[in-house]
Amino acid sequence: MDARMPLTEPDPRLLDALASLNQIGEAMNHIGQDGAVSVETALKMIVESATRVVPGASAVIYSYDSRVGEFDLASRVSAGEWDQSATGDQPRPAGLGMRAIHQRRRVLSQEDAGAKIHPVRAQAGAKSMCVFPLVVADEAVGVLYVYLLDERPFSQLELLMLDNFVNLAAMAIYHAHHLTRMQRNLTRKEDELNRLRRAGLLISSRLRLEDTLKAILQMALEVTSAQYGIFRLLDPSGEFLVMRAIAGEHLNRPLVEALPVNANSVMSWVARNRQPICISDLNAAPWSQIYYPFDAGLQMRSELAVPLIGASGRLEGVLNLESPLVGAFGDDDSHLLQALATQAVIAIQEVRLLDALQEVARLLLSQPYQKVLQHLSKLACDLLDASASAIWSVKDEDLLLDVSFGGYQHGERIPLNDSLTGEVVRSGQPLVAHDLRADERFHRPDLAQSQNWSRALIVPLLPGDGKQPLGAFSVYSSSAATGHFAESEWDKKVLICLADYAVLAYQNAARQEALLAAQEQRSIAETFAAVGDITSNLLHHLNNKVGTIPVRIQGIEDKCEDALAANPYLAHNLDEIERCAAEAMQSVRDSLLHLRPIRLEPVQVAPRIQEAIQTIKLPPGIYVQCETLESLPMVMAGGSTLSLLFTNLLENAADAMDGQGKIQISGRSDENWVEISVSDNGPGIPPYLHEHIFELNFSGRGASRPGKLGFGLWWVKTLMTRLGGSVGVESDGLHGTTFRLRLPRAQVDERGQL
């Protein structure tokens, strides 16, 4: 038969302690859940349980704030039949409670030498006591006092059960403190988010940048409890920080002059290093050596400064807060100020872009498209912090450089099919290059090396409606530049916006040119109609007067036959008079043909040029070379009108070369136009005269040959306008002249017929 140990009844206090622990644990699980259980309730349960496991005892708990090293007297929770609340038993600065916290152990009055019970408690009858520190993760959060009316030591069972209550009390207080801090931080974060939301609204509601910066600065003062603040923005040269907003009370002599970036100051240090700084004491080294006073009449002790840096890495300025208190700012203040600085950067970028677009819109309405493009090229460098920029337009199989800015050095023509910019035009999509010096797609790697280009952002000039790009807008950044626009979607959007305005400039110029051409064509038509009426009337009168000459001569010949037979000289002159009169009438009729409406029809170019060459009978010293004329398609024109055009151009070329030189005539065509070039190797026409040589009253060869150059070219331009074409001149004034005539190509239908 197995021997068995008899079962003994456990101590009722142990059972009560276990039940209390279970009840307290369940209560602690509900602390902070919609206020169902408070920490005070849990602590009350703990001290009551302590008095039950130690009969006749009184228990008190005080919370402790380790950050300031003080007890929270308002947190007192007590229990016990002889406990007297609010009797002045708060922990003494050098009492047993503070000793237990510092030594991180319990203190027993029966065992620790010099352990004196609080006088108030001793007067109430306490003979012995035990103090337990409430510690979590080596952080003291409070103390538990247990007093006895009997002068006896605590039993091991009592101390063991109290240790369990101590751990629960420590966790309850720690949990409460953690929740309080979380709620405090949450409230602060909500307030910060609301202020940031307000800052975002300010960006869209303020018209002036200064107003926006002042509002953001005022918010920064409120949320950080700072007393003084200043915004300094980087000037266009990048060498000075210029004051744009300042805030603070009782300012006497604020120092707001421009601050060099390379100066010995805190804000300059932040600008150079591009990182925030929080200085707890400005009197400490090394800050005391570089501090630049906010106000000559005020003494500041702490400073918080953050850089204003855009998404592309561009430095915009510095936001600075100061306080006369030591340690006024912390990490949370720094993070909040950086968020407000981001809002300020957004405001700066948006205001700068809006101002730029407003200026471009004004230029579009008042300036030639070349000036608009030049302004856009400059704006691209300013807004994107780029080193250089260029605007290209498509010309056949090449890209022509229309404008550039920032010391851009490049050829005026690059291939469309073998270049980085051409790839953007062909694809119609923006392109980012991170290192042009190693990019095989870049057409001129030698230029990237010599100009130290590293990054590039290129966008197409899209006219809309699914049409092919007109060209491309490119910006380049050197490796020494601080901006990284290739990594910023904002910069890409800005350049696309500027590219849209460039497209508007091109389209507006084309519309203006078409409008002027239509107006000129209409004016010429009206002029020719009026001149036609006048000349018809003149021809009628001339016909009446000159037409009678042959009739009268015939009458003389009939009545004076004998006299004429006897005088051959008289007979010959009468015949000449009759012939000249007839030729004069025919010449007038032929000239008037050019004043009548031109009947447009398909015309071959080459035969009309040959007809003009044969008509004018060029001097022997003039050599004419014709190339690629026979293969040109037919144009819409009048046959005699086209011959007259080339006659005038050939006469002008021969006159310009003084009868000695070479004239080269060539042509090319596309889907809509045929272009004929007439070039000579004469002295050329100065560029400043290009716009004047087509005027009616212009004579470029001097008074000795009036009208020789001017009237002929006016006539050429007039006839080209009537034909729906155009004429232009190219010359540097030294090495010959080229006239380019563009005529509408005769269109064919699906069957290949005109």
Summarize the structure.
The protein is α+β, with helices and mostly antiparallel strands and 754 residues long. It contains 19 helices and 24 strands. It has a six-stranded antiparallel β-sheet, sandwiched between helices. Strands 14-13-12-17-16-15 form a six-stranded antiparallel β-sheet, with helices on both faces.
Architecture overview:
The protein is α+β, with helices and mostly antiparallel strands. It folds into 4 domains: 171 residues, Beta-Lactamase; 143 residues, Beta-Lactamase, CATH 3.30.450.40; 146 residues, 2-Layer Sandwich (Beta-Lactamase), CATH 3.30.450; 144 residues, 2-Layer Sandwich (Heat Shock Protein 90). It is 44% helix and 21% strand. The strands form 5 sheets. The protein has a 6-stranded antiparallel sheet, sandwiched between helices. It has a 6-stranded antiparallel sheet with strand order 14-13-12-17-16-15, with helices on both faces. The protein has a 5-stranded antiparallel sheet with strand order 2-1-5-4-3, with helices on both faces. The longest helix is centred in the C-terminal third of the chain and has 58 residues. The radius of gyration is 50 Å and the shape is rod-shaped. The N and C termini lie far apart (129 Å).
